[in-house]
Amino acid sequence: MAWCKATSLKTARAHISAQYLDRKGVPIEGTERRSELHGGPGASQDWVPLTIGLPGSVPDSRYIGVSVWLTQAAVWDTSPRAMREVEFQDIKASAWFDDIAVYRLPG
Question: Which of 2, 44, 71, 83 is most buried by a 10 A CB count?
Fold first, then answer.
């Protein structure tokens, strides 16, 4: 879980991701999860919680890698592009992430 506050996100979006890593710090395939995207027209300018649920029972996992992201539309929007479409970028966008926490249920 993390708290995110973003401003000036017209086309860019903020999110967090997490995945399991093995004992050498190598990501374990198929374990990456991403939070919902935050930002865009009408999005809250206040602090909002972003959460992720990782799968259980991954025997080779030793660590959890957490990343925070502020990405342009070319990264997060995977829909087909129109021919000669102009891709706008938010050059004044900003995102703050705070109180990042990892919780583990008893096993």
Answer: 2
- Whether the pTM exceeds 0.90: the reply is no
Would you report the helix, strand and coil content of the chain in percent, each value rounded to 5?
5, 35, 65
Token readout for 21 is 């890593």
- Rounded-to-integer distance, Cα 14 and Cα 39, Å: 6
CB 22 within 8 A of CB 61: yes
41 vs 34: which has the higher pLDDT: 34
Phi, psi of 97 (to 5 degrees): -120, 135
Please state, as a whole number, how many other Cβ atoms lie within 10 Å of the Cβ of residue 91.
8
Burial class of residue 68, CB neighbours in 10 A (0-12, 13-18, 19+)? middle
Residue 10 in tokens: 């017209």
